[in-house]
Amino acid sequence: MGSPRSVPGSSTCRPSVRSRQPASPHARASSVIGSELFGSFDRPPGDPNGPGGWWILLEPELHLGDDVLVPDFAGWRRETMPILPNVAGFRQPPQWVLEVVAPATARIDRVRKLPIYAREGVAHAWLVDPLARTLEVYRLEGARWLLAATHDGDEVARAEPFDAIELALARWWMPAAEALPAGEGA
Question: Distance between CA 70 and CA 72 in Å, rounded?
Fold first, then answer.
């Protein structure tokens, strides 16, 4: 078996390979989403401070078959991964992934990565577009993705598999004036 191939747009954790850092709308969305999900779900099941039951990781390296991918977030139910392993790359597919899309990565996230996640049985995928201010929630049915829900703007949403809590999407986006390119606007 040869070495795994990396999907473009995913880092491979080699010191000499570094992806361009995301723009502030991407960083803002990722930071707020992470704080909401980590606080509620990345805890043992039955924890009185949230629904719990998940391991949620920021940019984990996934070794899925011959492919190496790095989603913005991935989550494993603790019932399927009782102990979080100390590894450089995860071989067990997560149950949920999130990709924060950017103009430079949208095609890779949709055309290259989503089919690999489906092939490996990832149950849910979220695509978040901070410029369009949208959340697309996909559920795997058989070997195909079903668009389960689309949320946008300032909605308060319940998005599977984390529908135990409400997500205030307005918090994910940069305020309109701050989302303009440098030198434009106020």
Answer: 7
Find how far residue 71's CA is from the centre of its chain: 6
pLDDT tens figures, 80-121: 999 999 999 999 999 999 999 999 999 999 999 999 999 999
pLDDT in tens, 33-56: 999 999 999 999 889 989 999 999
Question: Are the CB atoms for 92 and 81 separated by under 8 Å?
Answer: yes
Residue count (the chain): 186
Specify if 182 maps to a domain. no
| Nearest by Cα to 125 from 94, 171, 82, 85 | 94
Containing structural domain, residue 90 = 22-44+51-176
Q: How many domains does the chain have?
A: 1
DSSP string, 15-60: TT--PPPPPHHHHHHHHHHHHHHHHHHSS-TT-TTS---EEEEES-
Residue 184 lies in a domain: no
40-46 contacts, C-beta under 8 A, 24 or more apart: 40/162, 40/164, 40/165, 41/75, 41/162, 44/78, 45/78, 45/79
pTM to 2 decimal places:
0.85
Phi, psi of 106 (to 5 degrees): -55, -45
Q: Is residue 88 part of a domain?
A: yes
Are the beta carbons of 39 and 19 closer than 8 angstroms? no
The first and second tokens of residue 139, run together, are 């559920």
CATH number at 55 reads 3.90.1570.10
